[in-house]
Amino acid sequence: MVDFFQNGGIFMWPILGILVIGLAFVGERLYHLVRAMATKFEFAVSLSSQIEKEGFEEAKKTCEANVGPVANLCYNALDVANQGVDVAEKTVEQTAGIEMSSLEKNMTWISLCIATAPMLGFLGTVWGMIQAFNDIKMANDISPAVVAGGISVALLTTAFGLVVAVILQILQNAVMYIIDNQIVTLQKTTTTILNSISKRR
Predict the structure, then answer these.
(1) DSSP for 88-118?
(2) CA distance 36 to 78
(3) What is this structure's pTM?
């Protein structure tokens, strides 16, 4: 693998840089999402029972002691619960929008890395073909031995660029799957917490 990388020419390094940057953004998203999953829908169900038994203030204290989008959404809803369900609903909608934006933060950078890696690979292909034609011109010979070096560079950079794009695409889809599940959880939480506020009032 090291030999392939070295034989690929100068364009292998920026492609490798794209892979490192993409993995860094994927790691950052996974860390954020793992923390976000600290409170799940079960937390909202448990909080709903607490609201009915102990009231809004005690439930707010429970939310303060936890982290994640679900806890944040519940806390903001309870913070204005005494003003009525309509006010709580508007607050929940605003909070949900902010939390969803937070979940999807930096995803565009991962997409950029996925798009850039094969483009750099194709650029390396063009560069390799230019080298091959220059070698033909210098040697005044079109034998396979003369053009093999340039063609090798062309194929290796394309392959590496596509491999990097495939790796990042798979990881991005995994991250998006987690985000989609979190959004569904937020939607279910919204319904649960608003129903609890309505019943308590």
Answers:
(1) HHHHHHHHHHHHHHHHTTTHHHHHHHHHHHH
(2) 19
(3) 0.82
